[in-house]
Amino acid sequence: MGSRKHNTAQEIKEAKKTTYFAKLNNCPTSPRKMRLVADMIRGMEVAKASAILQFTKKESSIRMEKLLRSAIANYEQKTGDSWENANLYVKEVYVDSARMLKRIQPAPQGRAHRIRKRSNHVTIVLDNANQEVND
């Protein structure tokens, strides 16, 4: 590995130490449905976002809430602080499409329709609101 590539890799590694995120890969929900839930919590405080996800009737909100808890646990593990005192908020939430299972649905007169069962990757990034004020 060249020195420039090595230095860039080290900078990325140092930046990840202060980034608190969680990823959910191959979630069997369509990306469009998951984005509706992601849009509800983007930019909110963590406690408020968790409350919204708890009382939302959509199925994807259950998975999103679990992912949010995982990101909070990652924050606590990296810093050693409690999340209640940290003034955390959801900095970024993005949903990308993942693999697509292709199935065949029988149709009349010997035909067949293709059914696409979509899945997605979700990433949540948390940030400390106090940290931005101090920088």
Task: Outline the structure in words.
The chain has one domain: Ribosomal protein L22/L17 (Ribosomal Protein L22, Chain A). The protein is built from 5 helices and 3 strands, in the order αβαααββα. By secondary structure, the protein is an alpha+beta fold. The chain is 46% helix and 33% strand. The chain has a 3-stranded antiparallel β-sheet. Helix 3 (46-54) runs antiparallel to helix 4 (59-79). The model has no long low-confidence stretch (mean pLDDT 91).
Keywords:
135 residues, alpha+beta, Ribosomal Protein L22, Chain A, three-stranded antiparallel β-sheet, 46% helix, flat
Helix content: 40-55%
- CATH fold-level topology: Ribosomal Protein L22, Chain A
* Rg, alpha carbons: 19 Å
Strand order of the largest sheet: 1-3-2
User: Would you state the CATH class?
Assistant: Alpha Beta
Give the amount of beta strand, in percent: 25-35%
Instruction: Identify the CATH homologous superfamily.
Output: Ribosomal protein L22/L17
Strand count:
3
Number of DSSP helical runs: 5
Number of domains: 1
CATH architecture: Alpha-Beta Complex
Low-confidence parts: none
Round the mean pLDDT to the nearest integer and report it: 91
Basic shape? flat
Helix/sheet category: alpha+beta
Quaternary status: single chain
